Amino acid sequence: MGEDIWPRLAEYYEKTKDTPLVERFNQDKERFRHFSVPLDDMLLDYSKTSLDEASRELLLELAQTQGLEDKRDAMFKGERVNRTEDRAALHTALRNRSDEPVFVDNTDVMPCIHATLKRMAEFSDGIRNGTIAAYDGAAFTDVVNIGIGGSDLGPAMATRALSPYRDGPRMHFVSNVDGAEISDLLEQLNPKRTLFIIASKTFTTIETMTNAATAKEWLSAGIEENAAEYFAAVSTAFEKTTDFGIPPDRVFGFEDWVGGRYSVWGPIGLSLMIAIGPEQFVEFLEGGHEMDQHFRTAPLKENMPVMLGLIGIWHNNICGYESRAVLPYDQRLARLPAYLQQLDMESNGKTVALNGKVVERHTGPIVWGEPGTNGQHAFYQLLHQGSRIIPCEFLVAAQSHEDKLPQHHQLLLASCLAQSEALMRGRTGEEVAEKLIVTGPTGEELDLTAHKAFPGNRPSTTLIYRKLTPRTLGRIIALYEHRVFVEGAIWGINSFDQWGVELGKELAACLLPLIGTETGCEEKGGSTLGLLQTIARLRRE
Ligand code: F6P
User: Fold this and answer.
1) What sections of 104-152 are H helices per DSSP?
2) DSSP class of 83
3) Alpha carbon of 320 to those of 316, 350, 362, 490: distances in Å?
4) Is residue 429 classed as helix, strand or coil in its secondary structure?
5) Residue of 105, 193, 316, 477 with fewest CB within 10 Å of its CB?
6) Fold match between 5-65+298-425+459-497 and 103-281?
7) How many angstroms is it from 269 CA to the middle of ligand 1?
8) Does any ligand 1 atom lie closer than 6 A to the CB of residue 315?
9) Catalytic residue status for 505
10) d(CA 108, CA 257)
11) pLDDT tens-place string over residues 3-34
12) What pLDDT, on the 0 to 100 scale, is given for residue 497?
């Protein structure tokens, strides 16, 4: 299905790829309007890509023939779209702000979601106003979220993004099993005023459980009472949280139909809720829900997640670009690239389709990035003049929170717009023709023309929004979630499982007893054996 569209797209690209982007704007004075998607106070501009009317039509046809709309509706309806794990994927229910019921196996899950949200709000308020007191009777000053992957990246990214709204205790995140992270943090904390949230869907993840045990030991040494009293947990595994000693009224559950990387909207977002308060958290949910409604109802051509997904398909499968750079000109979105790496690469880094066959084309691209303007002084050289073309995804707010520093935001905006313009326009040799011949250190003449020229025609999109509020962040995250869904649906893969993370975990468990031992690891051949022996030798000497 849809197979004949791929070659048509490729053929069309071959025919049109040499048309400069600037020329496309010359041909269509309304190109910005024709190739952008407005949505309330947000706008996605993709006019600086090589898409035109015809290629867009082909991509939209591809989406239709791949059954995108049916697949989308099946997800929202709670069907078991995560077929390899036999589950629904209903993160959208966590942010459902309508009265519409959502059924899983004939049961409406909304009452349960609302009840959990209410419990989270009561707990958050208690921590924030001090009625749920710390060991010494005062309010908690610090909260530490211990979790990894989806149990860390979502709340950590969002808490940072929404720091202007933080009016609760200080929030910290520990994810790495490297003892350096927790040890550096604990040094700064007072055990009598610290609350730990153990966030783990499975409550078995080795990194999280190791950090949780260390935190419990540290707390036990700092207070005379049962340390587990100063823990809360977010998990689907109640018997395990009970074994850890966490009081049941401090355990917040969710269902297996919420994937880890899609879980910030529910109890995994508890740390975010404590930081910004339940009202702002609800604003964040409202934003996510608004994007859901848009995704479900807007015609495909005017649908922001659909168009962002199709641009991804165009760049990846038709133009052959291997990666995409996420470049927030918004320092508080510093963790967005890391968050999107899990969302995108764990969801769509697959080669086997839902029908069991190997996918015939590339799937998920490499996602990476850094906030502008720092990136400009690091890797943008390669973006502008490197041998690879990397589509750039800029994000920028029209307004900042720093009213007293207007000149900073003016510069930030100018820099963002300048970069996409420079990538598109480039600069030819003729344009840099003056002052090109210089005298080298040994008196020879050097012609710098080629060095100073920019090829241009490098594609980018810009997502512009009024201000990074909780509602806007909710819309941005939901936008990217659905973009990942759109791409996965077109490739026919399951974006909701993650079997690819298992093998390394299994091998680590086997290797653990061999670390530092001199003997017994001979059956490990080659490099692993060599490395094990080197570790043992370096520890011994
Ligand atoms: O290793 C991958 C993963 O399973 C992610 O999908 C998940 O977000 C993370 O580990 C953490 O899992 P848990 O919440 O069960 O600790």
Assistant:
1) 110-129
2) T
3) 5, 17, 9, 16
4) coil
5) 105
6) yes
7) 15
8) no
9) yes
10) 13
11) 799 999 999 999 999 999 999 999 999 999 99
12) 97
Residue among 194, 172, 198 nearest 185 (CA): 172
Tokens (6 digits) for 445: 């003449």
Ligand 1 pocket check: which of 148, 203, 339 to mutate, most ligand atoms within 8 Å of Cβ?
148
If we measure between CA atoms, which residue out of 234, 227, 220 comes closest to residue 148?
234
Tell me the C-alpha distance between 257 and 266, whole Å: 12
Residue from 290, 346, 393, 487 carrying the catalytic annotation: 346
Residue 102's pLDDT band, with cuts at 50, 70 and 90, is very high
**Does any ligand 1 atom lie closer than 6 A to the CB of residue 190?**
no
Rounded to 5°, the CA angle 56-65-352 comes to 105
**How long is the chain?**
541
**What is the band of 522 on the pLDDT scale with cuts at 50, 70, 90?**
confident
Ligand 1 atom closest to the CA of 501, numbered from 1: 1
Q: Which CATH code fits 5-65+298-425+459-497?
A: 3.40.50.10490
* Averaged pLDDT of the chain: 95
Q: How confident is the model over 378-404, as a mean pLDDT?
A: 98
Considering 29, 377, 404, 435, which one is annotated as catalytic? 377
pLDDT at residue 1 is higher than 60: no
Q: Which fold has domain 103-281?
A: Rossmann fold (3.40.50)
Q: How far, in Å, from the CA of 422 to the mean position of ligand 1?
A: 40
**Cα 484 to ligand 1 centre (Å):** 18
Rounded distance between C-alpha atoms, residue 178 and residue 125, angstroms: 32
* CA-closest residue to ligand 1 atom 3: 149
Alpha-carbon gap, residue 103 to 236, rounded angstroms: 19
Pocket lining: 364 vs ligand 1, CB cutoff 6 Å: no
- Give pLDDT, residue 435: 62
Nearest C-alpha to atom 9 of ligand 1 is from which residue?
149
Atom nearest to 205 CA in ligand 1: 16
CA distance to 46, 126, 193, 231, 311, per residue, from 132 (Å)? 49, 5, 11, 12, 49
CA distance 340 to 326: 9
Q: Per-residue pLDDT for 198 more than 90?
A: yes
Spans of all domains in the chain: 5-65+298-425+459-497, 103-281, 503-540
Tell me how far the alpha carbon of residue 101 lies from the centroid of ligand 1, in angstroms.
28
**Beta carbons within 8 Å of 464's beta carbon, 6+ residues apart:** 42, 43, 45, 395, 396, 397, 398
